[in-house]
Amino acid sequence: MTSCILQPARVAFASVILTLALVTLAGCSFQPDEKIWEISGAVFGTSYHISVVLPEDRERLEVLAEGIDKALEGVDASMSTWREDSELSKLNRLEDQSDWIPVSAPLFEVLARSDEISRLTNGAFDITIGPVVNLWGFGPNARPEHIPSDDALSHALAATGFENLRLQADPPAVKAVKPQYIDLSAIAKGYGVDVVARYLDSEGVNAYLVEIGGEVRTQGKKPDDSVWKLAIEQPAEGGEHTVNRIVTLPSMALATSGDYRNYYESQGQRFSHTIDPETGKPIAHNLASVTVITDDSMSADALATGFTAMGYERASALATRENIPAYFIIRTKNGFESHQTPAFSSYVTQ
């Protein structure tokens, strides 16, 4: 994993990312001693782009780039299901998980937050759904030649259930009623964003934007004293990327989950990467995209996934009840419709 430092930028990024793009702000007038510097690289099978507001200091930027790489490597080494040597992969390979298994503090933090969101969403977000995800070909395994049979799905589902996990905070440990295969792909990217944000905070960086594969977290303001702005992407399959809505993100985190990016077609059917833990099948409802804003990125990441699995009606009711800023884009026979919770409205600029 290597990172690079780009030239000072008048905008945070110019490229379209997984589920959102940054808004180009032309004609900004920055303070002469501060610029937006970009640090980018690859991690988690995707890319990261980090904008920091600092005076020109190449040596400090190099130190930050190395620190960011080290922080993200730590997350990957702990939580990747694609690495056989990761802490999580070793845990998943244990045939007996009935006794307390010590885990690192970072892994426990993510497991604990996952459990909270699983309970909040009544299981729509479930990190034990990995065997079913793999069965459909969206995990480390190759894509299946045939659609899984009902018997295969029933067998895989029988091995899942977030309620089978038990957590112990001190010392951090986990055990399972029956062996579980844990997949953190719907929360680990967000956690990686949070880890980078914490690192930048510890290094005295007061203004930044961190993005990993579409998960975003901001802090402070740009040199012209303006708030970071993001564009929620209009869902499109193979077409041009267009903006659906522009939002401000003042020292918050934002994540978008959509069914229009990661999917495949087989036997005339379309299969989304988002699996409904209740049925074990890819979602088939009309909710195309969900954007969630929270204080931390791992919560936004997990909630966006859980809301996507729930569908618009259930997710909107839950988000409204819990005062969670959420934005929904729904497919209709006449095109896309957008809906937002009352808590989301204060972030919308246009």
Explain what the structure shows:
- This protein is 28% helix and 27% strand.
- Strands 1-3-4-8-9-12-17-18-19 form a 9-stranded antiparallel beta sheet. Strands 2-10-11 form a 3-stranded antiparallel beta sheet, with no helix packed on it.
- The two termini are 37 Å apart.
- Helix 1 packs antiparallel against helix 6 (188-202), helix 3 packs parallel to helix 7 and helix 6 runs antiparallel to helix 7.
- By secondary structure, it is α+β, with helices and mostly antiparallel strands.
- Strand 15 and strand 16 (281-282) form a beta hairpin.
- The protein has helices at 58-79, 87-93, 105-120, 130-135, 150-157, 188-202, 297-310, 312-321, and strands spanning 3-5, 20-22, 35-43, 46-54, 101-102, 165-168, 173-176, 208-212, 215-219, 229-233, 243-248, 253-258, 263-266, 269-272, 275-276, 281-282, 287-294, 326-332, 335-340.
- It has a domain at 87-176: ApbE-like superfamily (T-fold).
- Mean pLDDT is 85; it is low at 6-31 and 262-268.
Key features of this structure:
single chain, 350 residues, alpha+beta, T-fold, 3-stranded antiparallel beta sheet, 8 helices
Write the layout of secondary structure elements.
Elements: E1 3-5, E2 20-22, E3 35-43, E4 46-54, H1 58-79, H2 87-93, E5 101-102, H3 105-120, H4 130-135, H5 150-157, E6 165-168, E7 173-176, H6 188-202, E8 208-212, E9 215-219, E10 229-233, E11 243-248, E12 253-258, E13 263-266, E14 269-272, E15 275-276, E16 281-282, E17 287-294, H7 297-310, H8 312-321, E18 326-332, E19 335-340
Antiparallel strand pairs: 1-3, 2-10, 3-4, 4-8, 5-7, 6-7, 8-9, 9-12, 10-11, 12-17, 13-14, 15-16, 17-18, 18-19
